[in-house]
Each structure stands twice: as structure tokens, then as C-alpha cells.
């Protein structure tokens, strides 16, 4: 990694803001949350030039699935580093040599083995920070560098600015993804209710009871039951491909039989 100039000057701040604005514009055009997360880690290594490897993990909601993105194989193999944050908002370690041991809340065998793995991949410093907004915790951004002084040179103010920016951007993408998913689910449920109402000549309340009861009896999510109802109806409505015996005879045969 080419070491970035020490931040602090007006030119450095302006350059950083411009790069972050460009990243925001790029993320705005990304089709989904996974794609946005991937562009973020790529930017950490590329346009922002903050590190040699980057990893991000984020959660779409309290009970939502986790998504992860990594810039390369090294970041993927060291992606479990976020578990060592404990209750701390950030974790900054420097490995001047492979034998260095930095204490954390998890200074146990797992931590020692992780540091050994990191050193084996020539990682000499790591900066992990929680991605949080005023609304919620989103995930963790972790930067890895082959230089022991990389994050000392950049300064905590710059790294905090980048982390906050990433958190706000991901929060927006998560809100959009959740809203899109909610609208899609609502539409799917409405379609399934309509199908059952028409098929059995029943009211919406009765159709809802059928779906709810089926979901409980089969231990399948309600939305998945609705998806099956809609899919089965669409499949039944699709015209079937005629068998070979039902297809029209060749033109020559048809003319000869006349």
C-alpha cells in the first residue's frame, strides 16, 4: 500500500471529502446491499487507499441475516477478527513482529491463533471499528495493512470520518432493502389471499385463517406459504407444452393424407 500523506491539512480533508462523495454516488447506483458492501471494501483498498485488505460485516435488522464482503482472500481468511472487539467501539493493533501480543478482552488462545494467522499473511496492523448510527448498530469495518504504522499515520480522526460515512451509507441501503422487502412481502401476501378468496369463494378473513393455520401446522413461514400458493397458481395457469403425439403432423404427411 502506498502510504497516504499524514492527514490534518485542508487539502487532505478536501481530498478525503471528494473521495467519500464519489463513493457515495457510486453506492447510490449499486443495485443492492451486498453490492454496496463489496464496493465499500474495494474503495478502502482502492480509491481511498487506506489499507491493503478490507472486510465488512453488516446486519439488515435485529433478526435479519448478516452480509459480509471482503476485498481479497486475506481479508476473507481474517474476517473473524470482529469477534475480538468485545464491547469496545474499536480495536487498533500493531504487530511490529509476529511475536507481538496485544491484549484485548479476548486475550486467550483464539486471539493468539488469530495473531499468528495475521502474521502469516504479512499483516502488521489492524483497525476494526463498529459501524453505528443514531438508530442502531450495523456491523463492523475492519482494515488490515502490511505496514505497522499505517493507521498511526492516517490518524484516528480520518478513520473515524470514514467509519461514520460507511455506517450512514450502509444504514440507508439497509433501510431501502428492508422497505423493498416489506413491500414485496405485502404484495405477495395480498396475491395469495386473493387467490384463495376467488378459489373458495370466501372472505379475506377466512383466507387469512387458512394461510395462518397451514403455516403453523407445517411449521413453515407464512410468507413462504403465500409464495407457494402464488407459484402453484401461476404454474397451473401456464399452458402446457403439447406432447409429441399431440403436435401437428409434418406438412408432407398432412398433404398426403388429403
Automatic annotation (TrEMBL):
Organism superkingdom: Bacteria
The UniProt regions of compositional bias labelled Low complexity, in chain numbering, are 234-247
* Residue span of region Disordered: 233-258
Q: Enumerate composition-biased segments (Basic and acidic residues).
A: 248-258
State one molecular function term (GO).
Answer: kinase activity
Please name the PROSITE patterns in this protein's record: ANTAR (PS50921)
Q: Where is the ANTAR domain?
A: 169-230
The UniProt keywords, alphabetically, are: Kinase, Transcription, Transcription regulation, Transferase
UniProt cross-references to Pfam families, sorted A to Z: ANTAR (PF03861)
Record's signal peptide? none
The record's listing under InterPro entries reads: ANTAR, CheY-like_superfamily, GAF, GAF-like_dom_sf, GAF_ANTAR, WH-like_DNA-bd_sf
How is this protein named in the record? GAF domain-containing protein
